[in-house]
Amino acid sequence: MAFGGPLRISTPSDTEILTERDFAAPRDLVFACYTQPPLIKRWLTGPPGWTMPVCVFEARAGGRYRYEWHKGDERLAMSGVIHTITMPEHIRSEEGFDQPDTGGMSQSLVDFEEKPEGTTVINRLTYASKALRDQIAATGMADGMEMSFKNLDALLVERKR
Amino acid sequence: MPTPASLDATFQALSDPTRRAILARLAQGEASVMELAEPFAMSQPAISKHLKVLENAGLISRGRDAQRRPCKLEAQPLAEATGWLIEYRKYWEAQFERLDDLLDELKRLEAMAGKA
Fold first, then answer.
1. B contact residues 90-109, partner A, Cβ 8 Å cutoff
2. Cα angle A62-A64-A67, degrees, rounded to a multiple of 5
3. Radius of gyration of chain B measured on its C-alpha atoms
4. Smallest Cα–Cα separation from A140: which of A106, A94, A101, A108?
5. What is the predicted ipTM?
């Protein structure tokens, strides 16, 4: 199978969400797609039916970023501040959605790992507390599972039989 | 909308491999405690303990037949717990597919420029 998706997702602790995805492209290109607004706008387009008219990303320590998605009068927006950025290896930041009840602020660490076949992007999102985790759960963004997503996925497939 | 408490109970119940295997078995149909104990090389009391956790989390229900009390999978809490993960993955998978296309385009441009 070619190097690439699907996305792997797990919850290594009560407060973390971990996603991993392989891309069949060199690391500098993948990093550019994460850090240059004209490129970000090409793929981080939000849920189906939404557009991304606002995209700011200041690729430096202390820099801010903001993504705004619009659908008619509806707005969905996320802002963050970059703590450290090492080209083309990792970005550590703190981010949150404008909307209340979406889990408050989270720490984000994105690692770009160079592989012979391409690049693996590992994103570790850490929430401040179990209370926040519970808040996320209440909005349908729960975590706190000790097991990998794959097990659940398999169970669900069996259940649908 | 699932409450945090019910999600906690679901995730806690799912954190044990034996209990996940029991659910997988029950996905194929009802089973008695004895039938469930067979493939696990476990005593009936040990299996009963796991069943109690699953029952308290609402993931299974027990039949009324006093002798047999067959166990049945209850799909709803499991569906609620998996729902957010599936939606989250679908969302990112869609974004990343666009990123795959963009990366292909950039690779072609680099090749044309004689870089790659």
1. 91-104, 106-107
2. 160
3. 22
4. A101
5. 0.77
